[in-house]
Design brief:
The chain has 152 residues and is mainly β. It contains one helix and eight strands. The protein has one domain: Sandwich (Immunoglobulin-like). Helices cover 12% and strands 33% of the residues. The radius of gyration is 23 Å and the shape is elongated.
């Protein structure tokens, strides 16, 4: 299982580290697996996670939120070989995968929406309205609008 927080990170260091971890797990576990690439963006009203899952079918995906974490898992299966097809070389990562995303406190977990299209899983994690940025303007000194109960 691969764990990721929704925080900014250095692209070059992170990508190198991910590949090293993936290679280490491959050697020690002996189990076919892969770590799908993802992109995490913060927008004004939501966080958006895009996960590259080419070759994975919707039925083989599992997503759930528990203990303030989004758990994503599934499996990319190989195509059944036939007598007429011989694979000469394959660089496609097959097997099971798992990713865990720690959710920020301002995410409304019950409002998470998932869409799977063209091999890309897109998860939209809405922010709570009270945590969205709000612009505050200064009141007019000549014509203050203070509630009568607040005046002394």
């Amino acid at each position: 299982m691969y764990h990721l927080e929704l925080k900014p990170f250095r692209r070059s260091l992170s990508q190198t580290w991910e590949k090293d971890i993936e290679r280490l797990i491959d050697r020690t576990a002996g189990v076919a697996h892969f770590v799908p690439a993802c992109e995490v963006r913060e927008e004004e009203t939501a966080y958006v996670i895009g996960v590259d899952l080419p070759g994975v079918v919707e039925e083989d995906l599992t997503m759930e939120v528990k203990d303030n974490q989004l758990h994503l898992s599934g499996e990319r299966k190989s195509q059944a070989p036939t007598e007429k097809v011989q694979v000469l070389r394959s660089e496609v990562r097959l097997g099971k995968f798992a990713r865990v995303f720690t959710l920020p406190q301002n995410v409304r977990a019950e409002g998470i929406v998932a869409n799977f299209e063209h091999g890309v899983l897109t998860l939209v994690l809405p922010k709570e309205e009270k945590t969205r940025p709000m612009k505050i303007t200064l009141s007019d000194r000549k014509n203050p609008t203070v509630a009568p109960e607040l005046k002394s």
